[in-house]
Design brief:
- The protein is of the alpha/beta class and 397 residues long.
- It folds into two domains: 164 residues, Phosphoglycerate kinase, N-terminal domain (Rossmann fold); 199 residues, Phosphoglycerate kinase, N-terminal domain (Rossmann fold).
- The chain has 15 helices and 16 strands.
- Strand 11 and strand 12 form a beta hairpin.
- Helix 9 packs across helix 10.
- The chain is elongated.
- The model has no long low-confidence stretch (mean pLDDT 95).
Amino acid sequence: MSAFKTIDTLDVAGKRVFVRADLNVPMKDGVVTNTTRIDRTVATLKELSEKGGRVIVTSHLGRPKGEKNPEFTMKPVAEALGKAMGQDIPFATDCVGNDAKAVIDTLGDGDICMLENLRYYAGEEKNDPAFVDQLADLADVYVNDAFSTAHRAHASTEGLARKLPAAAGRLMQAELEALSNALESPARPVAAVVGGAKISTKLEVLGTLASKVDVLIIGGGMANTFLNAKGVNVGKSLCEHEMAETAREMLVAAEKAGCTVMLPVDGVVAKEFAANAANQVVDINDIPEDSMVLDAGPKTVAELSAKLKECKTIVWNGPLGAFEITPFDKATVALAQEAAEMTKAGTLLSVAGGGDTVAALEHAGVKETFSYVSTAGGAFLEWLEGKDLPGVEVVRA
């Protein structure tokens, strides 16, 4: 990831610049309810505009399944982008053909427009060459500012970059640099936090990280599967009993790679999965038969915090417990705040990503303090798995 083209390599003055953004934002009653993704791509759009580019903003929204469905129109997004940019953003009622060209042809140097939903056409997700040609007909250069869609070889994320001079936008550049610094050339020791319900959904992530990091902290429901594999009776806790042998093999592989795996030594248990359910802290070997572990306990948090103080880099994906219901959010919040304090002090590079992770860090009040928080879900996970991402490969230098 360390060698990729940025918009510094493009001459955009007077040229039509096709910008693939990720503006797949939450909507309610035709109004954008969260502008985070819009706000994060403003820097790229402003720079391209200031350099005299004729900027064409594109994105998908929802799942219209290759049909023109007004429920998924980008028009409200164009209005929200206009507010964020402080200027009028003309909107094209199509993303290809005469309607798109008519709006693009009105652009002067530095102007910005937005096209309709790319996924109104099945050719987008199929990376259909004919659809790629239709998109290429609209522009002179290509900028990808949507790392979160880079794991998909779609027409607007991969195919088009092979037709036009291509580069990463500033948001994508920031993402690639943060990820590269976290795992490709990190300051060591490196810790990784991996949480979530099941190890079966993160087998490749765990395997890759165990070979790359110095400390692997496992939390959430998947920690119970590893504890069970080590002979701990986890009571009624969420646990993939059938994955015990796989978990044991992972622990052996991590040890061979010199990676320290940290599991809970105590837990917060309850008889029901409910907010403010009656609960108690128990040693991990004393989980009652009729109870479930819903969070890591205070001794675990103390051990993890002490180990984190020795580290220079942390990669975080997934919570340590059922953070969405109190009081089972304490371990996630405590360790996230410890990482945030170290980041503020300049002793830790902290990179996090994934839907639950972003929500957990927001809940802990530290999302803005981490060095970098990726809003990409699937792309972030596939990067953790060590996979090549099609949308990144096409902007390599």
